[in-house]
């Protein structure tokens, strides 16, 4: 028989012995009412039963501070659920055949050391919802019933309260949680654990973990509870109820659960919208009224009015710490990667849990050997890349067009500059760290670029080619959708983008830079001043970003020169001339596309950009397919008319002369 099963059986025997004692009180009371009834001796269960851990009844009584009378009331109610004859006993003891249930009046008459305080709302039984009171009768005559969650606990069954499942979930805690952290996070976790158990602080303090590294904050909280010996449950701040009655009932139930489970609460506020006033109020109410161990995770510091918080800023693991995490997690396999760990660290900024998950997932699909270390390294890279996507998918559009160099028609000088950008991203770690160019400040170490040119001249395609070359994700962010009229919201939106992108080293493509980077005019009011603050914040984040950040604009002249000087690369994408347009036409149709009689020099006279050429080619393919014909000049002519109509431009005879 397993130790767990042995404890479960012994715990239930202990409980039933305690219930038998209360049964004796009932029978003694019945004997008083009916002297002919047989006398029953009392059996007091010994608290020193041979159990590896205390029985649930004793644990519950101690944690909730129940008096002997309150404990017996709880047993009186438990007997109703566990003894089929209990209802008859209660009815007989109360002299009412219909009253086949416990009541406070019965408890006051039958149980020793009765105390009216046990009946009040501030008493342990009612305050912690250990029992439920029926309605429709006087308080002392109302039926009493043990709460289902409490009954399960007493019999040794760990089953979460169904009323908490939607709001609270348990975080698994494993042996060695502290050892899984990087050195700086381990030091922080040890400091927090020491503060939470320190008697010098008196009341248990509330600890706030701030910063953008969500996974690391949770890992630190888990390690803290592991070190202290607490369980840990998490409550998501963005889904808690906001009605006063609902939040009060939720927290009352949770506080009971915390006592039953010896658990701390992690209040996760990382995804809470600070503009949601009602939810912010509910969170503040929890913070100010909760008396048990509480940890808070939040991107920004919270400042409740009536309750001080002890705040710690959680930074991403340093590059050196990430190297150590990779090596320790991979074990002997790390030596077979031939320096690829350096490449991973230089492009991805991952937390300890993320590195551990990437290693486990990759090693589960590919057993590394010396002859396939490159393949293993590539799979690790792809796993990291995919893993980092989850935080970006709701913030920006991922572009996956698979463009290649041969698809891009640009003058050599622009193509050479694009290759320079690739080299800067690829060799960032070597130049900044190994060769020492990083210095002591991170300012200006980000790789920034401005792509200027008319719509359709290849700006997005160029960004996609860079992403393909570097095997990184490309995300398009529409700046016009990020800008908010509310002060501080634009910066908050930008911070979410950059913080989320850091992990995957993603390439960020900010479209419509004109929406934010217009020429600065004289500051006339607070809105002008705030607009300049937003621009400065974006440039600051771009300069500090570990990856590549690209701005696009249709009109470079609309941008302030002071801002342009802070951009490392500025590439002008020219409108293609006739020869370049001809070259685009020669490359635009896939090899599988049937064509007939296409005159590329004449097509090159069509005065549109590459993006428009692609639209025309695609539309002409549909027209030809519908006619069951190969793509011919007549189909392109028809598609051109539609494109020009969209552009609100006339299609001149000179452009289509001799087409058909």
UniProtKB/TrEMBL annotation:
What is any Pfam family matched here? AAA
According to its UniProt entry, this protein's organism is Oscillatoria acuminata PCC 6304
So what family is this one in? Belongs to the AAA ATPase family.
Which keywords appear in this protein's UniProt record, sorted alphabetically? ATP-binding, Nucleotide-binding
SMART domains the record matches: AAA
Name of the protein:
AAA+ family ATPase
- The domain of life for this entry's organism is Bacteria
Signal sequence coordinates: none
AAA+ ATPase domain segment(s): 445-577
Citing just one GO molecular function, the answer is: ATP binding
């Amino acid at each position: 028989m397993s130790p767990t099963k042995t404890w479960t059986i012994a715990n239930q025997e202990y409980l039933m012995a305690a219930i038998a004692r209360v049964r004796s009180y009932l029978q003694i009371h019945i004997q008083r009412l009916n002297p002919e009834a047989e006398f029953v001796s009392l059996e007091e269960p010994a608290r020193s039963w041979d159990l590896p851990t205390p029985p649930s009844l004793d644990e519950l009584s101690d944690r909730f501070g129940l008096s002997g009378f309150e404990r017996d009331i709880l047993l009186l109610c438990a007997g109703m659920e566990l003894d089929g004859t209990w209802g008859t006993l209660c009815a007989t003891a109360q002299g009412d055949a219909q009253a086949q249930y416990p009541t406070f009046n019965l408890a006051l008459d039958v149980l020793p050391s009765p105390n009216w305080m046990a009946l009040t709302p501030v008493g342990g039984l009612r305050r912690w919802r250990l029992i439920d009171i029926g309605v429709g009768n006087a308080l002392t005559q109302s039926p009493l019933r043990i709460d289902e969650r409490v009954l399960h606990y007493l019999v040794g069954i760990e089953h979460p309260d169904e009323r908490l499942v939607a709001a609270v979930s348990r975080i698994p805690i494993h042996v060695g949680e502290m050892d899984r952290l990087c050195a700086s996070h381990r030091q922080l976790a040890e400091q927090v654990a020491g503060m939470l158990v320190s008697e010098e602080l008196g009341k248990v303090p509330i600890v706030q973990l701030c910063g953008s590294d969500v996974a690391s904050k949770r890992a630190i909280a888990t390690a803290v509870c592991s070190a202290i010996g607490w369980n840990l449950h998490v409550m998501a701040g963005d889904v808690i109820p906001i009605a006063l009655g609902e939040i009060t009932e939720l927290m009352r139930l949770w506080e009971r659960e915390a006592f039953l489970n010896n658990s701390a609460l992690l209040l996760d506020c990382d995804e809470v919208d600070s503009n949601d006033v009602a939810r912010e109020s509910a969170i503040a109410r929890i913070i100010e009224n909760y008396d048990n161990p509480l940890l808070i995770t939040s991107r920004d510091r919270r400042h409740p009015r009536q309750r001080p918080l002890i705040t710690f800023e959680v930074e991403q693991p340093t590059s050196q710490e990430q190297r150590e995490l990779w090596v320790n997690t991979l074990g002997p396999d790390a030596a077979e990667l031939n320096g690829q760990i350096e490449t991973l660290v230089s492009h991805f900024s991952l937390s300890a849990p993320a590195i551990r998950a990437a290693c486990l997932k990759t090693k589960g699909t590919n057993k590394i050997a010396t002859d396939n270390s490159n393949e293993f390294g590539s799979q690790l890279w792809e796993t990291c890349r995919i893993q980092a996507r989850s935080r970006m998918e709701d913030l920006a559009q991922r572009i996956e067009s698979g463009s290649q160099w041969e698809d891009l028609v640009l003058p050599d000088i622009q193509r050479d500059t694009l290759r320079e950008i690739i080299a800067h991203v690829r060799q960032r770690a070597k130049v900044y760290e190994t060769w020492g160019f990083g210095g002591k400040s991170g300012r200006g170490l980000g790789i920034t670029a401005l792509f200027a040119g008319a719509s359709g001249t290849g700006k997005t395609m160029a960004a996609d080619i860079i992403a393909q070359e570097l095997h990184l994700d490309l995300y398009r962010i529409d700046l016009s959708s990020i800008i908010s009229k509310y002060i501080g919201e634009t910066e908050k939106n930008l911070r979410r983008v950059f913080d989320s992108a850091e992990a995957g080293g993603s390439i960020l493509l900010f479209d419509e830079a004109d929406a934010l980077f217009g020429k600065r005019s004289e500051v006339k009011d607070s809105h002008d001043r705030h607009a300049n603050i937003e621009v400065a914040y974006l440039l600051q984040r771009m300069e500090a970003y570990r990856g590549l950040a690209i701005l696009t604009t249709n009109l470079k002249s609309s941008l302030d020169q002071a801002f342009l000087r802070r951009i490392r690369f500025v590439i002008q994408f020219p409108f293609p001339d006739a020869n370049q347009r001809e070259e685009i036409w020669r490359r635009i149709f896939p090899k599988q596309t049937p064509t007939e009689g296409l005159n590329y020099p004449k097509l090159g006279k069509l005065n549109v950009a590459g993006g428009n050429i692609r639209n025309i080619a695609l539309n002409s393919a549909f027209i030809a397919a519908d006619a069951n014909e190969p793509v011919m000049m007549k189909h392109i002519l028809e598609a051109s008319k539609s494109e020009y109509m969209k552009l609100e431009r006339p299609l001149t005879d000179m452009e289509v002369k001799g087409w058909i």
